[in-house]
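agent> Task received from the user: take the single chain below, predict its 3D structure, and emit structure tokens. No templates, no multimer pairing.
agent> Plan: (1) validate residues, (2) run structure prediction, (3) serialize to tokens, (4) report one or two observations.
agent> Step 1 OK, no nonstandard residues flagged.
tool_call: predict_structure(input=
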Amino acid sequence: MRRVLLFFLFVANFCAQAQQRYELNTGWLCNNIKEVKVSGQQLSDTNFSLNSWMPATVPGTVLTTLLNNKKVPDPFYGMNNEKIEDVYKTGNDHYTYWFVKDFSEKAVANEQVWLQFRGINYKAEFYLNGKKLNPKTHEGMHIRAEYNITKFLSSTGKNRLAVLVYPPDFPGNPNGGQGGDGTIAKGLTTQYTAGWDWIQPIRDRNTGIWDKVTIEKTKAINIKNLHVVTLVPGKRLPAGTQKPATLKVSVEVDNPTNKVVTGVLQYQVAGKTISKSISLPASKNTTVNFADLSIENPKLWWPSGYGAQNLYDLKIQFLSANQVYDQESLKVGIRQIDNIWNAHTKSMGAYVNGQKIFIKGGNWIISDAMLRFSDARYDAEIRYHKDMNLNLIRIWGGAILERPEFYNACDKYGLLVFQDFWFSGDCNGRWVDPMKKEDQWTRRNYPDNHPLVLDAIEDQVKMIRNHASLAFWCGGNEITPPEDILNPVKNDILPRLDGTRLFFDFSNSDEMSFNDLGGNGDGPYGIQDPKSFWSTKTFPYNSEVGSVGVGDYESLERFIPAKNMVAPQFKNKPDSVWDYHKYIAYEQYINPYGKAKDVKDFAMKAQLVNYDQYRALMEGFSNKMWDWYTGSIIWKTQNPWTALRGQMYDYYLDPNACLYGLRKGSEPLHVMMNPVDSMVTVVNNGFTGLNNLMVQAKAYDMDGKEHFITQAFNSIGASSVRKFFSLNDFLKKLDQKEGVFVSLRILDQKQRILSENIYWLADKNGEYSGLQKLKATPLDVMAAKKSNNKVEVTLSNKNDNPVAFFNRIALIDKQSGKRILPAFYDDNYVSILPGEHKNITVEYTGAQDNLAVEVYGWNVERKTVAIN
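)
tool_result: status=success, residues=868
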């Protein structure tokens, strides 16, 4: 027993000698440059007094710090953003700030201490203990910085870091154009901050130490930029024994000392240890390649909806003289992503582990326009995308290359990532644009510093290339980078640093999706007639389509002042706050449900439009899977501020009906009805065919009377679409004075529901006259706690009632009545047929007390029930 104890003590001590890493994320102070009259050398002396300085938010932006110190109002609420001074008008000094942090650290013996910045916008000077760290000004939002600060540390262990941060050199005129006057793109920064058609300008243009600041402590060796490639040959299935997969591993090893260092570099994964003895020259950074490793019967990583997201723990260490000099770890998903041109659709097809994947994606801007990132928020947002039954997120090029924590969540939930670099057709000169300051020829060469862009791309590729979720690279949004950036990226940087992922020149390029229709190659945008998604062919791998998403009343209350809660009216200019938050017209689609009486009525009817719109969008694309399309990517699924368009959930993480309409239309196995000819169709996204499926269709009138139509057993092949039967003749015979409900289901042989779908059809005049007169229905609601973070809600409708239509379930705080956010519902905005019930599971995060469930619907009065 004593030997065992000594062994574990030895192991604990051995590991304790390995690298240490911690964040400098508290205790920062800041001051505007105009208030600081001393140099960086003086400021970074620990004896210099900071008594009058303001607490700073790091990571964060200057605007975040000002907001947290109540120096500015919340720019996301009402018209508050207009009350905040814009850097274009004030000049850059107004948002140029010193940030200072005192910390304790010292180096002993062969220890090395590294200071790492993961993101600063836009330029910076670094000082430590009276010495300048960077001989050349740091520039560029999208690039990391690392300094070996060992020799700069104080012998007492008490240190002071001072960082001077400047805004972008060209913040741009926020004149209402896409990216303002376009000059924001002259630097390597976020273009959206000068304003877009879905956001108002961010007044400081995201100036600040916006990403993590880290201290890493190693011995004489620093392991950096680990690279893991996984090869999965052949065509695989998620279940069963797998043939071997191959891991190719390489890593950079930095020896900053003036002596040769000899030791063993090793990594461990899947119970195997691979070692290599190496000798590292003094003051050299060396790339070490390991021999290929074969993994027997690997647990593969699959996109959401197709299989499990298995991840392996990989740890790499450098050992010398019975010490761990440094170590790094990461999660590895074993999968292979390929791309094969589909000659029939004239678009690229995505394959994972040899299986073709129909892309159902969403465009992503950024989690928060003020860069207030957190692991929890990333996790919630990516989980919502999984809940939409999507399998891909495209990172739009006018923002950032996302943070590693974002990709961690995508790895976890199975969302493939389509990653743009930092260019857009709007700012970078694709079109004639009277809002832009400079002509297209000039804008075509933005940013001004091309070598900086190439350095940043190299750096950022190294940062995220190991993530299983990362699937595609893209040169830019709707335009390529300039040739002297594009060619090195295509022909050198990506082949050398990655070599496993397809690179699209730009987001709607012909190599991705051949455009034989003319126009821009993406869209349409705004609200469409749902029939158009089924009947009108668009681009075969559409990178941007759709753009609605007004939230419900509770969502609107969070950022629209009470005096501005005025329902928009058809063809009238909306209220100023609605207009400021980028509202696009809904009313012509709401009016068939009855003209909105007030904002609550408007918001409820908007959810009907939302649900119908996104269900139809994904159903229409799925109906032509492999015939017209290999995929579509919605514009867009989320907002980084309080906008009124392009979102499945609001900035506060409260979902609206877009999310659940999209979830329904994107089901892996889905029954649907073509609104053009009433053809009932089944789509199977799975890798195996299915037999003995009972496909059932019923209709219900406005009194709740059931009209059985038909049902039939049939089969469907793998990854295919099949037409079953038409309801056209039956629906023509049915009295359409008021419209009807159509219920579709797929059942297995045990009569378990595999897919269900309820449509509400208008009358012969295109009005929902029956819904407007639908009788109130008492709905029985029960809620029971199933586990620490899970509640089951049961909705029951009695036999003789009408359909209990379009019910919203919300988990709330019993005392305040406010919703618990985020919360994840396995369905919502649900309709309960007469004599039936439905169970809804709600999951939430963290410890929550005094919970209740609120339910309301189109013809169901709002009620709150306790949780048993």
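agent> Step 4: summary for the user.
Residues 73 and 83 are 8 Å apart (CA to CA).
agent> Done.
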